[in-house]
Design a protein that fits this description.
Number of helices: 2
Helix content: 25-40%
Order of helices and strands: HHEEEEEEEE
Distance between the termini: 111 Å
Strand order of the largest sheet: 1-2-3-4-5
Shape: rod-shaped
Radius of gyration: 32 Å
Number of domains: 1
Largest sheet: 5 strands, antiparallel
């Protein structure tokens, strides 16, 4: 008896039609396409965010180091065209009468700091990378005891370029 009931149920069942299968494949395809586009947008935005973070950290790091030395200084030299055609030289005398000198220069998009004490062997440090050497984007000037610097960091390529500019006005300490 159970076998007769099962036979009747099996006979009444039929498979999916070709149209039903094609509609289901089209729906699955549309869902996959949407997921692919969303994933691509997330990856592009993540890359843009990474480039912005890198550019901003590099420019902020450059301003931090120059500000640190400029606030200690008695003398600032070589501010015409920094960093393209000239070095930025910052000098100061410490409380123990030791003479400090920090020279900043740009080399292939990398801002470097050469630091020496009492004319000794200088220590070279990379301060920031990806610095844009265009004079309108990265420069400094010194007037009336205030160093004005503008540093622009450029990260990315082609249409995905991210520029970050940081400007600062720094007063050197008065002669003591």
């Amino acid at each position: 008896m159970i076998s007769r009931v099962l036979r009747r149920i099996k006979q009444k069942q039929s498979g999916f039609t070709l149209i039903e299968l094609m509609v289901s494949l089209a729906i699955i395809g549309a869902i996959c396409l949407g997921a692919t586009i969303a994933t691509a947008q997330i990856i592009n935005q993540s890359s843009r965010n990474d480039d912005f973070t890198t550019a901003s950290r590099q420019a902020l790091n450059a301003v931090h180091w120059i500000s640190r030395d400029a606030q200690m200084s008695h003398t600032i030299n070589g501010t015409t065209g920094f960093p393209v055609s000239d070095n930025l030289t910052i000098a100061w005398t410490d409380w123990d009468n030791s003479e400090h000198e920090a020279i900043y220069y740009l080399e292939n998009g990398t801002l470097r700091r050469s630091y020496s004490v009492d004319g000794g062997l200088p220590q070279e440090t990379v301060v920031a990378e990806y610095i844009n050497a265009s004079i309108g984007l990265t420069n400094c000037s010194y007037a009336n005891g205030i160093l004005t610097i503008k540093i622009t960091s450029t990260v990315g390529e082609n249409e995905k370029v991210v520029n970050f500019t940081k400007e600062a006005n720094i007063s050197s300490r008065p002669n003591i």
